[in-house]
């Protein structure tokens, strides 16, 4: 991993990044193997991270700690995309009110996509709500590909690397030809369909995306559907407000 040049900080960030990808947690040995940092240094860094509650330790496993939540919560609270998108997401929830579906606001973070807000209807099964992850590879989900399709292909290749770029570029071309709509079927959960649209202004790369995922919604998963039109208008409204609120 390319670092900032501040060695200790770079190593701490490598450790917390690895832990952020592991639901069960990782041992010091596993962290050493994944990062290439020697075990002695790993243990010293983990001790400091545990002290600052960035990491928790239990039975030899290390996981992200509650301290990490403080930073993330502060970031989300002041994030303009989240604040501006919320009323539009609520409006979309009303549009799908009689269907088992979830409306999410997605934010690209490096080569990942993070769902920063989710709301669901009363008919959405609890297991769908509870089992749905909130972070995905940006090229491996509907909302992520909606965002990537707004990037110039060379920028996508730099972000993903050649192998991932070659695998996803035909799907990005299809999204561009489909007017920006990204569609997915049974990708995160069997029977769950999804449609996403990018939040972008003019020809600029997307700042995020709105995504609706639901059961028995195949009829809505097309660019000509009423839901798709609502999503497009919502994303245009969010993008316009974000651009207007940004100091020139």
UniProtKB/TrEMBL annotation:
Superkingdom to which the source organism belongs: Bacteria
PROSITE patterns noted in UniProt: HTH_ICLR, ICLR_ED
Keyword annotations of the record: DNA-binding, Transcription, Transcription regulation
UniProt key word Cell inner membrane: no
Organism: Gluconobacter cadivus
Residue ranges of domain IclR-ED in the record: 67-244
Occurrences of domain HTH iclR-type (ranges): 6-66
This protein's name: Helix-turn-helix domain-containing protein
């Amino acid at each position: 991993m390319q670092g900032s040049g501040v060695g200790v900080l770079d190593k701490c960030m490598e450790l917390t990044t690895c832990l952020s990808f592991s639901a069960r947690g990782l041992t010091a040995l596993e962290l050493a193997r994944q990062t290439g940092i020697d075990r002695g240094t790993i243990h010293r860094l983990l001790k400091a991270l545990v002290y600052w509650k960035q990491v928790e330790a239990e039975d030899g496993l290390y996981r992200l700690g509650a301290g990490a939540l403080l930073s993330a919560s502060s970031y989300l609270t002041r994030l303009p995309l989240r604040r501006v998108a919320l009323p539009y997401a609520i409006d979309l929830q009303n549009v799908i009110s009689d269907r088992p579906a979830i409306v999410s606001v997605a934010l690209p973070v490096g080569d990942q996509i993070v769902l920063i807000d989710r709301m669901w209807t009363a008919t959405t099964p609890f297991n769908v709500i509870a089992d749905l992850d909130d972070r995905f590879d940006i090229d491996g989900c509907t909302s992520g590909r909606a965002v990537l399709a707004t990037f110039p292909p060379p920028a996508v290749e730099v972000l993903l690397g050649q192998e991932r770029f070659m695998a996803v570029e035909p799907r990005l071309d299809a999204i561009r030809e489909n007017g920006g709509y990204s569609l997915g079927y049974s990708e995160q959960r069997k029977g769950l369909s999804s449609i996403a649209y990018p939040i972008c202004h003019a020809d600029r790369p997307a700042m995020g995306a709105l995504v609706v995922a639901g059961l028995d919604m195949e009829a809505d998963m097309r660019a000509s559907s009423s839901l798709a039109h609502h999503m497009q208008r919502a994303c245009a409204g969010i993008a316009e407000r974000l651009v207007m609120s940004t100091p020139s």
